[in-house]
Design brief:
Blueprint (H helix, E strand, L loop, with lengths): L5 E5 L4 H12 L3 E6 L14 E4 L15 E4 L6 H6 L1 H22 L3 E7 L22 H20 L2 E7 L1 E3 L15 H9 L6 E4 L11 E2 L1 E3 H11 L8 E6 L5 E2 H12 L5 E4 L8 E2 L4 H7 L8 H23 L1
Parallel strand pairs: 1-2, 1-4, 2-3, 4-5, 5-6, 6-11, 7-10, 8-13, 9-14
Antiparallel strand pairs: 9-12
Length: 329
């Protein structure tokens, strides 16, 4: 009987990284989490994983030939912050990944799954967005993620790396004790849930005059557990020397108003809303084509209903609030 496969998960104490690490453990992998806890949390490291507190740049001290693959989530990821402090994003996302790739080369680890983003596309030229559409990012965050994708392609051609980049759209929901705990929070579903909890007075709706059925923006939401399953499939998807890029999304979208109404229905709480002006650069519709992920990865998301996503996120948010209240007593 062969030994379990061993993987390094960078950023595995964060939202998506922790859920993927939990799925890997459930599938029988040996998991090491490398995270500097700048945005992640010790409680996000699943029981059974080895935890090493450190930066991406420390991967060379961790990796050795016993590892089979790296799943790379560690990154700075706030779009607004990337505009005001782009240097941080180029140092962390691009510089850090460059050192990670060097460490993988030196240790002989030849499989990589990279957490990319739909922000690489910028303003969509068509809907749904495919991997062949132009990548013209509109923020330093998106630009650094695209630069890493290009760097990975070069590494595959030059040194025989097998890699898959997964470009997420809007990740949401929770998986047991693992969910969103961003500070500051910028994602719609957890923000609306904070209103339902009474932690915010109202949710801002940025524009209600878009060319959509209810006038609000439409976005593609994907359950974090479906996302995690795609990562496990991706570990075996790329042939030697190939860089495969796949979008991950539901292929259909939900409007801001649909999200708010779903939160009201799931939580049973009022959610006041305030109409604010449109934000610059907000497209009316952002929806992914995930046909390539279905064909190349064999990925079939099963938690595509908005109510399922919101209900899991609400359960996590309420459990987290209860734990905080108990800790304060």
């Amino acid at each position: 009987m062969s030994a379990p496969r061993k993987v390094l998960v960078t950023g595995g104490a964060g939202y998506v990284g922790s859920v993927v690490a939990a799925h890997l453990l459930e599938a029988g992998y040996r998991v090491t989490v490398l995270d500097d806890l700048s945005t992640g949390f010790p409680a996000g490291v699943p029981a059974g994983a080895e935890f090493i507190e450190g930066r991406i740049q420390d991967a060379g001290e961790v990796l050795d030939p016993s590892y089979d693959a790296v799943l790379h989530f560690a990154a700075s990821s706030q779009v607004g912050e990337s505009v005001t402090d782009p240097g941080k994003y180029w140092r962390n996302n691009v510089g850090g990944t460059m050192e990670l790739l060097a460490a993988m080369r030196e240790s002989g680890v030849r499989t990589l799954v990279f957490s990319s983003t739909a922000a690489t596309y910028g303003e969509p030229v068509s809907v749904p967005i495919t991997e062949d559409d132009p990548a013209v990012p509109t923020s330093p965050y998106g630009a650094t993620k695209l630069a890493v994708d290009q760097m990975i392609s070069d590494e595959c051609r030059a040194h025989g790396l097998s890699a898959v980049s997964l470009r997420y759209f809007n990740v949401a929901g929770a998986y047991g004790p693992y969910g969103e705990l961003h500070d500051p929070e910028s994602h719609l579903i957890p923000l609306v849930l904070q209103v339902a909890q009474g932690r915010r007075d109202a949710i801002s709706v940025y524009g209600d005059d878009y060319p959509t059925l209810d006038g609000t923006c439409i976005r593609d939401y994907i359950h974090v557990a479906d996302l995690a399953e795609a990562h496990l499939l991706a570990l075996d998807a790329a042939p030697f020397g190939e860089h495969l890029v796949c979008n991950l999304g539901n292929g259909s979208g939900f409007s801001v108003r649909e999200v708010i109404e779903t939160v009201r229905r799931v939580t049973g709480h009022p959610v006041p809303e305030v109409i604010d002006p449109r934000r610059n650069g907000d497209p009316a519709v952002l929806v992914a084509s995930a046909d390539r992920a279905r064909k190349r990865l064999g990925w079939h998301p099963s938690r595509t209903g908005l109510e399922d996503i919101v209900r899991d996120a609400w359960t996590f948010a309420e459990n987290h609030r209860t734990q905080n209240m108990e800790n304060e007593q």
